[in-house]
Amino acid sequence: MQQPNSLKRTQRLLIASGALLMFFGGVAGFGFLFFLLGEIRLWPFPTIEYQMPGSVKAWRMTHLEGMLGGLIHWILAALLPLMPFGLKTLRRMSIAVISVGWMFTVASLMDAVFVDSRGLAIGGPLTNSFAFFLFYIGIAMIMYIFLAIAYRSLTAKD
User: For 92-114, how does the pLDDT look when each residue is reduced to its tens digit (9 = 90+)?
Assistant: First the structure.
C-alpha cells in the first residue's frame, strides 16, 4: 500500500524527534553516570572533580524519559497508517505527542539539575513550577490523545 507523502513526512518527523529524544536521553545518561561517579570522568579526558546535582531517581528518570519517549515516537510512526484518522488529524496528533515527549523529558531534567524542582505540585522555586506546568499540560494532552485513539479505533467502520 502506497502512503501519501504527507503521512510519510509526519512519520519522518516522529522518527527524527524520536532519535533526538533518544540522543538527549543518552546525554542525560552521561549526567547520570557522572552523578554516580561523583566526578566527571570520561577517558581519555582529564577528570573534573565535580558532583553533579540531583539524585539517582531524578537522573534515571531523565535518562529514561528521553530513551522511552523516543521509542514511543518510533512506535507511533509505525502505527500511523493503521489509525482511523484523517491526515490532518494524524499530523496534529503526532505534533502533540512530540511536544509531550519533550515536555516530560525537560520537566524530568529540572529535577535532576535544580533543587526542589520535582514538579509534583505548584509552588516553591520557579523551576519547580515550570516542571509542574510541563507535566500538567503534557499529561492532559496525552490522556486526551489516548482516549481519542481508543474511541476512534473501537468505533471505526472498515
Answer: 999 999 999 999 999 999 999 99
* Cell triple for 10: 509526519
Tell me the three state secondary structure of residue 48. Answer: strand
What DSSP letter does each residue of 95-147 carry, written as one string?
HHHHHHHHHHHHHHHHHHHSTT---SSS-SSHHHHHHHHHHHHHHHHHHHHHH
Mean pLDDT check: name the lowest of 2-6, 62-66, 69-73: 2-6
Compute the radius of gyration of the chain from its Cα atoms: 18
**Residue 2 pLDDT > 70:** no
> What is the rounded distance in angstroms from the CA atom of residue 38 to the CA atom of residue 34?
6
Q: How far is it, in rounded angstroms, from Cα 125 to Cα 127?
A: 5
Give, as one character, the DSSP assignment of residue 40.
B
Predicted TM-score (pTM) above 0.70: yes
**44 grid coordinates:** 581519555
For the chain, the structural domain boundaries read 5-155
C-alpha cell at 111: 529535577
Site of grid cell 484518522 = 85
* Furthest-apart CA atoms within the chain: distance in Å: 63
Residues 6+ apart with CB under 8 A from 84: 152, 153, 156
